[in-house]
Amino acid sequence: MRHEEHEGRLATTNTKVTKGRTPRKLPPKLIGFRGVLPFVIFVAFVAIDVFVFSVAARAQNAPPPYTPPKLANGQPDIQGIWQVLDTAAWDLQDHGASLGVPAGRGVVVGNEIPYKPEALARKKENDAKRATLDPESKCYLSGVPRITFMPFPFQIVQQPDKVNILYEYNHTIRQIYMNGNPHPSGHIDWWMGDSRGRWEGNTLVVDSVDFGEETWFDRAGNYHSDELHVVERYTPITPYHMRYEVTIEDPKVFTRPWNMSAILYRRIDPNVELLEYECYAYQLEDQFTKK
Asked: Which of 211, 198, 218, 221 is nearest to 250 (CA)?
């Protein structure tokens, strides 16, 4: 009887009894796994249920997408004075601080610009000699999209057949034609390119070609050729913010298209307006002062 009780006790702890056979001990790890498995399954189901409920609750409570006011012609109204608050003017990619350069997160999606090997070598040379090679140092017009990332505000003014962007830097004026006409035939070198726009819902989509090769993307030597093709997307996401997305194509310089993304901020400070930044005048003044 004691023997049977002893075997029964073993069978309830760490033995497996098979009829007609001597009880066999189970490995301790297997005993622990069998004991914990139901609890693990229960916890997993609870975690999945909580996650699904949380996602559903957020989706239910999320505010609807922002709908901007409309102009009399039905176009979304994105007029106003806007400005970036990032450091892409110094470098489109992630970068640390140095003398005269604030640290900042990049605007390049994935933080990689897919240069061809020979083009990357030129980019590095540009960066090393940026003090004299940067077109900004010569007061050239900035080009697209660099002028958007410059530390100067710009103003959007809409008309039925075009969207005008007035930039504080060098009093640059850019006209985006909205009449459905295609780009002119042939290649024409323009500092700001030829821009044709359309509306996709509340997003202004701007297709630009016909650039020269004299402009850069930033002060870090990132550059392009005269085959640059730029597609910009301006999407209002609140009354005071607009998402700015850019796709860059240039088969001479890059191995594939690449993208940038940033936020534009509406300037709402009192008496805000575009002021002056006459780069050429300041450059001439500096030259004559040094004589």
From this structure: 211
